[in-house]
Amino acid sequence: VVLHIGFAEEKIKKMYKNKEEYHMSEQTLDPKILGEVISEYRKKKNMSMEVLSGFAVVGRAQIVQIERGLRTPSKATLRNICSALDVKMSVLTQEGERRMNENKSEQ
After folding, report:
1. Which of 7, 42, 45, 76 is 20 to 30 A (C-alpha) from 84?
2. Is 58 exposed, middle or buried (0-12, 13-18, 19+ CB in 10 A)?
3. Rounded distance, CA 19 to CA 22, Å?
4. DSSP category for residue 57
5. Cβ neighbours, 10 Å, residue 83
6. Distance of CA 90 to CAs 54, 60, 67, 87, 94, Å?
7. What does the alpha-carbon distance between residue 39 and residue 106 come to, in Å, rounded to a whole number?
8. What radius of gyration do the chain's Cα atoms show?
9. What are the tens digits of pLDDT across the range 45-72?
10. DSSP letter at 69?
């Protein structure tokens, strides 16, 4: 499993021009936007925060903080949330990046 995750991460890194760009992208994802994206996916699944927290094995209070943008989830927590929502982590983060870029172009 570790090899598979490492391989996937290497594949994602190749999508970026260099390592700095990859790490910049990873670090600059706005927690508020990420929280909005998670919230929208949860609502599309007609799932309450309580149910999501149970499936993701994450405290409900933590889900509330993440969705409000008050807390940035760890990679493990984000992976659990994505698994519970049946969405790839890359899809969720790419949507967050798209919205961040959209917001920058509007300003």
Report:
1. 7
2. buried
3. 5
4. T
5. 14
6. 22, 23, 18, 8, 6
7. 23
8. 14
9. 999 999 999 999 999 999 999 999 999 9
10. T
